[in-house]
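Researcher: Checking consistency across runs. Here is Cell division protein ZapA again:
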Amino acid sequence: MSMKQMEVSIMGQSYVLACPDGGDAVLAEAVTRVDREMCAIRDAGRVKARERIAVLAALNIAYSLSEQRRAGGAVLPLTPPPPPPPPPIPIDVDGLVNRLEAALGPEGMRLE
């Protein structure tokens, strides 16, 4: 998957973010939500430090997503699911045993 860069503004500060091809709309929606949440916390006037505002915004968004999940809303997971495991490789056990016997000879297979 190729990535491109997208410049965004959150709470008046510019950021350059990596964005997968075709993910512009989803990233723009996420940026809008984060910006709206951070500005609301800042405008409430109780918190001034950008870092604390960001943490509170992240917690508010995560809480909201958890509530939606609990209520049965369709919410995408925060991380993509792992890819399915590869199919099993068929092994010819009888053929392997025959090759081992041929390589070791009749004395090689004796257990004493």
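Researcher: Does this match what you'd expect to see?
Model: One thing to look at in this run: The longest helix spans residues 24-44.
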